[in-house]
Amino acid sequence: MLEMRPDCERCGVDLPASQPGAFICSFECTFCAECSDALDDHCPNCGGELLDRPTRVGAALKEHPASTERRHKG
Question: What is the pTM of this model?
Answer without folding.
Answer: 0.93
